[in-house]
User: Fold this.
Amino acid sequence: METILFYLHIAGVIWSVLFILQADKDAFKWFSGKSITLDEVRTKKQHKMVWLGLIVAVVCGIFLFWDKRFYLINESPAFLIKMIFVLALIINGFFIGRTIKVATTKSFQNLTFREKIPLFISGGISSISWIGAIVSAFFL
Assistant:
């Protein structure tokens, strides 16, 4: 059972990353002006698919964690670091859900500097957290 959960955990991460790459490609077109706005239906679908993968990874991760919880919590700094990154992803995911409206209704060029800053901060948090969670997993 543990092997199945492990592969489902990895599949959830891969699923999310594939939709993130798709969303980032669309976002780059928006940033560069090649796309005036993002397609709302497509963008919301991408966001939901990333959440689906993240939920699968987290739920499977909880089951994988349970038998090893004392070791992971008390003796594995890599696990604690990974959990910080995962928490950042979850919190940022809610923030991204709230900012989708901006990208689907306004062109990037027409945004004020004040409107752009949260988008860049969120993008940075997302990138760093996904990479950090994946890299720290290799040290478990």
